[in-house]
Design a protein that fits this description.
Blueprint (H helix, E strand, L loop, with lengths): L1 E4 L25 H15 L4 H4 L7 H7 L8 E2 H4 L3 H6 L6 H10 E5 L3 E3 L4 E2 L9 E2 L3 E2 H17 L3 E4 L3 H4 L8 E11 L2 E3 L2 H16 L8 H12 L3 E7 L6 E8 L1
Parallel strand pairs: 1-3, 1-8, 8-9, 9-12
Antiparallel strand pairs: 2-5, 3-4, 6-7, 9-10, 11-12
């Protein structure tokens, strides 16, 4: 089983700590590619058009400025740097050592800067989205695709891949020779069903934590549906598994609003 998460848009900058050690991160073979993206990010973030190049608003000027010193900034486990609805719901910062150890081989956050990291990997805060075209590197999804595929395919090892990412991050890595299932969440209220972004992120975070804390990893989409049903309980209205000819099968969890 391999769970794929998107990064949070916002990050919590570690107040203290050593800078990132690229060779100490998961998938050390990605180190030269991480270095290339980080160097480009630092350079672009110092240019006059940095806000436009990184496609962010004026309120994020401080985060863009912090990108300029990305190699010198304090690093901390990704479980504490990534924040937001999904990561707060997972309570990843509170995972104990055994859960983090399990996640080291079962969970990855796909990142525009790092390619992919495990929750225990020490990284600095940064501002960069996968949909960005970064200097001479160009589109980051296209840059990472051939580099991530061998790394993450080897980690998935033909098993179940549980995908909780958004479309721009899916573009950077699409599993091959694996049972690929995308997790969708809908809310049912007054007989109507709709996607509510906050609820979807929250539920995916809860599911990731639930699966990481359980030694018995699901091996099929049906196993995954059972695990989700057991976690959600009476609030679960429906579970629908939709096979796809191309791309991932889709597991949709419908929750009472």
């Amino acid at each position: 089983m391999l769970i794929l998460l998107p990064p949070s848009e916002g990050k919590t900058a570690p107040p203290t700590g050593d800078p990132v050690d690229l060779d100490a991160l998961s998938h050390p073979g990605l180190a030269p590619h991480r270095r290339r993206v980080g160097d480009a990010l630092a350079k672009v973030s110092g240019q006059r058009n940095a806000m436009q190049a990184l496609e962010v608003g004026a309120s994020l000027a401080g985060e863009v400025e912090r990108n300029r010193t990305v190699w010198d900034n304090p690093a901390a486990p990704a479980a504490r740097v990534y924040t937001g609805v999904l990561y707060d719901a997972a309570d990843m910062a509170g995972w104990d050592a055994s859960t983090l150890d399990r996640a080291s081989s079962r969970l990855r956050t796909v990142s525009a800067l790092w390619g992919a990291v495990a929750p225990g990997d020490a990284i600095p805060a940064y501002r960069l989205s996968m949909g960005t075209s970064l200097g001479r590197i160009g589109g980051l999804a296209a840059f990472w695709r051939p580099r991530l595929s061998p790394e993450l395919d080897a980690l998935a090892d033909g098993g179940l891949v549980i995908d909780c990412r958004s479309a721009s991050y899916v573009a950077a890595y699409r599993p091959t020779d694996a049972l690929w299932v995308s997790v969708g969440v809908q809310r049912e209220l007054n007989g109507k069903r709709a996607v509510v972004s906050h609820m979807a992120k929250h539920t995916r975070g809860l599911l990731a934590a639930h699966l990481m804390r359980d030694d018995a990893a699901p091996e099929s989409a049906a196993d995954l549906a059972d695990a989700a049903a057991g976690m959600i309980g009476d609030a679960l209205v429906d579970v629908a598994l939709t096979p796809r000819a191309k791309g991932p099968d889709e597991l949709t969890l419908v929750i009472a609003g």
